[in-house]
Write a structure and sequence with these properties.
It contains 12 helices and 9 strands. By secondary structure, the protein is an alpha+beta fold. The strands form 3 sheets. The chain has a 5-stranded mixed beta sheet with strand order 1-4-5-6-7. Strands 2-3 form a two-stranded antiparallel ribbon. A hairpin with a 2-residue loop joins strand 2 (about 160-165) and strand 3 (about 165-170).
């Protein structure tokens, strides 16, 4: 079964995604800063770009693990020989050092850490990868999925644009692969479980697969693979009521985001004042743009540890 993504002509209208609506729902001011930086008054574009490109320790650990697994899967497309575990973990360690040396972290930029504990970072990356190679997905990929290795879609290029029940949406998958007449979708997670959010994410993946490739719903099997602190999996099954409810939710969430547009078709936002701040310490301390809401945090000065405790790796 050969899979090819459909190409869509560019349209400026916003598209629904799990991450976009999650940000909109949690803090509309953060949403404005992230999606409409050119409309932010009195802040140079270079500064908005710099803030948008900030990362976090937890996010970068996830990026390393995703990229190592992408490399592993692409290697399998060339050779199905067993991996050399020593080289596998050394590659992950080298990639971790590279990523953490090149990027600017929220925790340091806003002064929550004087330095990043790289020993803890390496431990978490290694634990995630160890859980992967000792878990059932690893064996299944070698024993079953490898039969269709030439048709795997691994971290496909682009943003995963699709149409869900006629609405523009983005659903980018980590790993999509056909086995016989079925389609399996695997998504790696290095953070905590959130079954409500992840159920919607899997529904989105399945809906995109159905829309893009015409695969029947009962032949699509999406799964979250949790890699930390231990190995676990989360799968969903579809029925008519859950599908109908999912499409209703997307339409409602899209309408909420449209409501804060001055021009929906051109995706022009209303003035920034209409986008409320969440102002929740536990949320704000992890926000790239906290220095815009709290100017006293624009430097990497010490923060109040009780009000804004450092985020764990």
């Amino acid at each position: 079964m050969e899979l090819k993504y459909q190409n869509y002509d560019f349209t400026p209208i916003l598209g629904w995604s799990i991450s976009r609506f999650e940000m909109f729902n949690k803090c509309k001011r953060q949403y404005f800063y992230n999606y409409y930086p050119r409309f932010v008054p009195d802040v140079p574009r270079y500064k908005m770009t710099r803030l948008r490109e900030l990362t976090s320790v937890a996010l970068e650990v996830g990026n390393v693990v995703h990229d190592v697994l992408e490399k592993f899967l692409k290697r399998l497309q060339v050779s199905d020989s067993d991996i050399n575990e020593e080289r596998f973990f050394q590659y992950a360690r080298d990639l971790t050092e590279k990523y953490f040396a090149e990027k600017t972290f929220i925790e340091k930029f806003y002064g929550y850490y004087e330095s990043i504990d790289m020993s803890r970072v390496h431990e978490k990356v290694a634990a995630c990868l160890k859980n992967f190679i000792e878990g059932p997905s690893y064996s299944w990929i070698y024993m079953v999925a490898v039969r269709s290795v030439k048709n795997w879609m691994i971290e496909p290029a682009g943003f995963g644009e699709t149409r869900l029940n006629g609405l523009k949406a983005y659903c980018k998958m980590d790993f999509l692969l056909p086995v016989d007449n079925d389609i399996y979708i695997l998504d790696w997670k290095t953070g905590s479980k959130d079954e409500i959010k992840h159920k919607s994410q899997l529904m989105g993946y399945a809906a995109a697969t159905n829309s893009n490739f015409g695969i029947p719903w009962d032949r699509i099997f999406p799964k979250i693979v949790y890699l930390y602190p231990g190995y676990d999996e989360f799968e969903i099954r579809f029925d008519e009521s859950s599908l109908s409810g999912f499409f209703d939710t997307i339409r409602e969430q899209t309408a909420q985001m449209y409501a804060l547009c001055k021009d929906v078709r051109q995706n022009v936002p209303q003035p920034i004042e209409n986008f409320e701040k969440a102002l929740t310490p536990s949320f704000c301390r992890n926000c790239n743009y906290q220095g815009l809401c709290f100017p006293e945090r624009t430097g990497a000065g010490k923060r109040d540890a009780e009000a804004f405790p450092a985020c764990p790796v």
